[in-house]
Amino acid sequence: xxxxxxxxxxxxxxxxxxxxxxxxxxxxxxxxxxxxxxxxxxxxxxxxxxxxxxxxxxxxxxxxxxxxxxxxxxxxxxxxxxxxxxxxxxxxxxxxxxxxxxxxxxxxxxxxxxxxxxxxxxxxxxxxxxxxxxxxxxxxxxxxxxxxxxxxxxxxxxxxxxxxxxxxxxxxxx
Length: 174
Prior knowledge:
Blueprint: H1 2-20, E1 32-41, H2 51-67, E2 89-95, E3 98-105, E4 116-125, E5 127-136, E6 146-154, E7 159-165, E8 170-173
Parallel strand pairs: 1-7
Antiparallel strand pairs: 1-4, 2-3, 2-5, 5-6, 7-8
């Protein structure tokens, strides 16, 4: 009798798992599409500093001191005088003229010297949309550093991603 109970309990436990494990689940409505804004980039430095120029200057001083026979005296703490902090970036996204995102993204890192990460999801009904996005790399700038405008056709179940590739001239749509 106890073997029968054990089998019955196991069947009762595993039948729902088998039945419900194949049921699809969607986080979004059936007739919707998704627009993602996903990229990372760095804002401008708060204090502009020419590190390469400083390194070249220090190299010349180093060469000169070697030639004069004074030894290799170089102060690497001079390079640390360039503060690494960066401005937050600002992203503004409009869909059909309506502002959907207008937000600042803080730079990462303990010293706020790393990239800012942008990730937003906007569920939309399938259809045609006019998308306009702008990016500011410095707080308080009047004009955006990069802009992108495009008419996009989104079908049901599709995901369109707006990324940022400075090497390709700015925003790209995948």
